[in-house]
Amino acid sequence: LVKCIQEHYPIKKYRKASFIQGESNIGEIGRALHLIAAYIDEAASAGPNDKNQSEYSLNAVKIYKLSLDYKIAALGNDHSSVGHTYRYLGHKYSNLRKYQEAIDAYSECTRISWAQSKIDFTHLVVTLNSLGLIYSMAGL
Known about the structure:
By secondary structure, this protein is mostly helical.
């Protein structure tokens, strides 16, 4: 499914398009990819063994990153939807014990949250809590 999306809706085509033209189509693709990654992430949690969990988690990370490419192309770097995907990406990196990548993702999510005209403080607090937990787990 992801390969089909990449072939029929190449990101290069939309990077040079204005954000108004094609925004809903390309933005929807980004949101759909985010949901696919979340589904794979849930499958990782229900996996029968650690090897499958790790494989599912790595696939989820790849799809979250692809989702970010589409969302940023359509919505820009500071859109709240982009921030939500960074938060989920941070969770995946945390589960994979890739602490620096998790810190980077949570930091970007936090930056985006502060850039909003109407700050979602619940979202911000959850992200900052996750960031603090990562620093603790990594011994920083």
